[in-house]
Structure formats: structure tokens, C-alpha cells
Amino acid sequence: MPRRPTVAGVPADLAVILRDIGALVLMQATLMTFTVLLALVFGEFYVALAFLIAAGVTAGAGGTARKLFANAPNPVMKHGMVIAAGGWFATAIFGAIPFFLAAHLTPASVMNSYVPAGANYEPIRIGGETTFSSLAYYGNPLHAVFESMSGWTGSGLTMAVHEPSLPHAIQWWRSLIQWVGGVGVIVLTTAILARPGSGSYALYRAETREERIHPSIIHTVQTVWRIFLLYTAIAVVLLFGAIWWSEPQQGLFETFWQSLNHAMTALSTGGFSVTDNSIQSYDSPLVEGVLLPIMALGAIAFPIHYLVLHDRNFDELFSDLQTRWLFVLFVAGSLVLSVQNIIALPVASEAFTQTGWIGTQNLGMSAVAGDATRDSVFQFVSALTCTGFQSSDIGNWSAGGKLIISGAMVVGGAAGSTVGGIKIIRGYMISKGIQWEFSRVFLPASAVVNTRVNGRKLDRNQMYEEFSEATIVSMLWIILLITGSVVLVNVTPGFGYADALFEVASAQGNVGLSTGIVGPMMSPLGEGMLVLNMWVGRLEIIPVLVFIRSALFGLNP
After folding, report:
1. What is the phi/psi pair of residue 501, to 5°?
2. How many beta carbons lie within 10 A of that of residue 130, not counting itself?
3. Measured between alpha carbons, how far is 204 from 294 in angstroms, rounded to an integer?
4. Which of 98, 187, 212, 250 is the most exposed place for a label (fewest CB within 10 A)?
5. Which residues contact 273 (CB under 8 A, 6 or more apart)?
6. What distance in Å separates the CA atoms of residue 181 and residue 92, rounded to the nearest whole number?
């Protein structure tokens, strides 16, 4: 029996995986080091020390793995899936270290200096001391891992009850990991660190991004990041103007800080915020109106952005199947949700205010009905794009409204974008496959049936393959959703099944909207389960199953 090849005394397959996961971890150490400098600029010395230690630990682990197994062969698809799943998990674990250390290294008196003047927050006990800063919650290692996983997967659910009470460096870290994680930490590392050849594409595909812009995957990813940087800069400018107009009493730096962080988390469809109550804090139609197109940009496949920006081909916005259906769902879903929330006003009026959109009274709507419509539009777009910004107290919505939002979070936006969920193309392929099977009933057995999907002509075998893939992933997704919601509703007394289903759909769809279940006081079992839901949802299940199978039985057939 021939001996299996080894690298540094480790089986070659495992060496490939450890080396490339090490590269991902090493990349995160670089981001931590930059955040050390930011913390020093803000005079947050205890937080700077936390990031410095975290960067050292992370660089040591990642650098050792990368150097020790540098001679391992290039990855193939079976490696790519394990690296993707293991890489995301390892990245979330190491990303939790600065949260945890900052909570334990920072004295309570210093934590209190981060609390905005005049804020009336509930006290928190940590290390025998009392503070009013939500930084203390990260002293629980599970809370720290939850926050990191939520950030890296672009989920946006948080253990921070009051985000303004966090140090600037922690606020920045939360936004940064969502911004990087939005495009994909594996994609970023592929662009910077990967070797030329098919191994790069194996990593890129395993991270659930199939679309190529250039023949070279390296050039493709670099172009994606150029587009992302351009959009981020534009979003910062637009949000700065909207927030300054809505909050004129606020200082210019604070306005810039909020616009920077919200631009990063909106475009990456992550949803972390630096204000209390997310976007609801502004209660501004202008801010919400500016965020709508920014969130929509993050939900459109990156090749479409390239064609529009580089080739000036604006027809792609309407000819591309996923983009066209995204716009259709925006309009239809917002309309259905608005009707549902207006009908439910007698029992859910506490969720809405009397603000309304400008001029809604002239359209025959009351101010509260106008506000219900405004929140319905924003929340549906936020859910379908998997951004998770919240402009309304969804916990007080009717069960019907929660279920409509849950459906949007399950579907998600376009494949090839920053969103989570099942993706529009899979939903379309399932409906197309059902139509295809139904039409064959009325045709002779000898008939050759082809179908066209987004400009591609599919024969019988190709249609079966596409339909099977979409159905398998979607069914696994739904099974995990139902299982998770049943577990959660049984460990969260005081909440109904619609709330539990909403919360699991939000975590697994990497969205971040919440009815109030998620928080530092939730059940540890429920919290740990949602961490796994976020991880599984980010990778669309199959790579995680391959990871588990490989851990138990190895990579051989």
C-alpha cells in the first residue's frame, strides 16, 4: 500500500488546508494591527493593547501555519470547500479575541467614559465592577464569538445593547469586519496572497461566488474590490449629507463617523450600526431614502456592476434575470408588506409613529399609515438585500408582517453579490424546473425539451443538474431553518414561533433584523445555535457539510 504524501510530517491534504486557513488568519492580524493605530489616535489605550495582543496571537498562529506548510500543493475543489468553511470559522474565533480582551483589560471607569453624556443606560457588572458601557458584554467569550461571527458573516445581529457606548476602535472593528466579510475574506486573500492557477478558483468558487469578470480570478477579485471602494466613497459622501441635514446639531466629526460606518455596513449588506436603535435613531426619511439604493447596490451581482461601470451597459440592469427580479421583488414585496401593516394597525400601532412621509396625508393616508408604509418599504428592502438596518420596532409588528419579512430574508438577493439567503437564482430555477416538469407531461416521450435561463440554453441533463442543485440547497436551508426555530422558541419564553422563525431566518440569511430575542440575556443554547446558523448560512450549507464529513472521515472518497 503506497504511503500518502506528507508535508512537514502532516498529511498533504491537511497541510493544504492549514496553510490556506493560516493565510486567512494572517490577513486578519494585519487588520487588527491597523486598528491598534486607530485606537491610539482616539486615545483608547486599553483597547489598543487588546488589539495589539490579539494581532500578535493571530499573526503567530496564521504565520506559523503558512510557513510550516508553505510547500503544500495547490488546493482543488475538495480542499477549497473545507478551507472556506474552516477559514470562516477560524476567522470568527480569532476575530473575537479583541472583543474579549478589550472588555477585560479596560477598567470600568474608563468604559464609562465611552458612554455618551446624558445617556440613561442600564448598569452592567464585570469583574466585580459596574459600568454602563456595552463593551462589558464582550467579557463573556460566547458573546465575543457571536459578535465576531455576526460581523464576518455580514449578519449584523449584535450583543451590544447600546452601540454608542462602545469605544471608537471597537465600533470601527465591527464595521471593518463586515466590510471585508461582505465581499469575502477568502476572496480578499485570493486577490492578495493566492498563487496563480486553478487553486485560486477553487477557493473562490467554494466561497459561493461563481461569476467571473476577467479570465483570471485574481484580476476578477481585484476589480470587485475597486468597485467596492468606489461605491463606499460615494456612499460616505451621500450619507454625510443626509445625516448632516437630518441632525444639524451634531458635530461634523460625529456625522462623518456615522456616515463612514453606515456606508461600510450598508454596502456590504452587513447592518452593524454605531447608533442606538440602528437607523430608527434618525427617524429621517432622507437618511432612509439614501440608504435604499446603497443597500440595493450590495444585492446586485458584481459582474453587473462591472458591465455598467466599465462598458456603460445600463441595459444589464434590466436584462439580467436576477437584477430584474430583484427590482420586481422590491416593488411587490414593499406593496404587500405595506398593505399588511396598514391592515394590522389596530393591533400593531405601537410599532409606528405619526411622522409619515411628506405629503402622505394628501394621498388620503393618515400619518401613522404613512409611517407604516415608509417603514414597510425600508424594512422589506433591508430584509431582501440582507442588510439588516432597522427603522421600526419589528417586535411589535403583527405576525403577518414578521412572516413576510422572514420570507424576504430567506430568499435574499442575487448570487454573486454580498447577500445571504437562498438567492434569487435558486428560487427562479426551482420555479422553472417545476414548470419544465409540468410541461413535459403534455409532450411525447421522444420530444427534445430545452429551456433558456438568463441567456443560457439548457438541455435536459443541464436542467436536471441546475434544478437538483437549487432544490438540494434550498431544502437543506429550510430544514435547518425549521429545526433552529423550533429549538429557539423552546428556549426563549415570552416569544412566539413567528418571532423565533424570524430570528433564525435573520441569522441564517445573514441579515441582522431582530424582534428582540437576540441580546446578552438570551439563552446560551440559543445563542450558540445562532452562531452556527450564521456560519452555515454564509457558506450555503454544502461547504460546511463537506467540512464536517472531512473532519470525521477524511478527504478520500
Report:
1. -60, -40
2. 13
3. 25
4. 250
5. 163, 261, 262, 265, 279, 281, 389
6. 10
CA 423 to chain centre: 13
Per-residue three-class SS string for 467-531: HHHHHHHHHHHHHHHHHHHHHHHHHCCCCCHHHHHHHHHHHHCCCCCCCCCCCCCCCHHHHHHHH
Assess contact for 236 and 220: CB atoms under 8 A: no
Grid cell for residue 251: 458635530
Closest-CA residue to 530 (of 496, 470, 473, 489):
489
Q: What is the DSSP letter of 5?
A: P
Cell 434575470 found at: 321
Residue 216: per-residue pLDDT: 61
- 77 with 205: CB under 8 angstroms? yes
Query: Could you give the CA distance from residue 322 to residue 306 in angstroms, rounded to a whole number?
Result: 15
From residue 216, alpha-carbon distances to 181, 197, 205, 323 in Å are 22, 9, 13, 24
pLDDT in tens, 236-294: 999 999 999 999 999 999 999 999 999 999 999 999 999 999 999 999 999 999 999 99
Burial of 33 (0-12, 13-18, 19+ CB in 10 A): middle
Q: pLDDT class for 357, splitting at 50, 70, 90?
A: low
Task: State how far the Cα of 79 lies from the Cα of 16, in Å rounded to an integer.
Answer: 7
Predicted confidence at residue 112, as pLDDT, reads: 95
Using CA atoms, how far apart are residues 479 and 146, in angstroms rounded to an integer?
Answer: 22
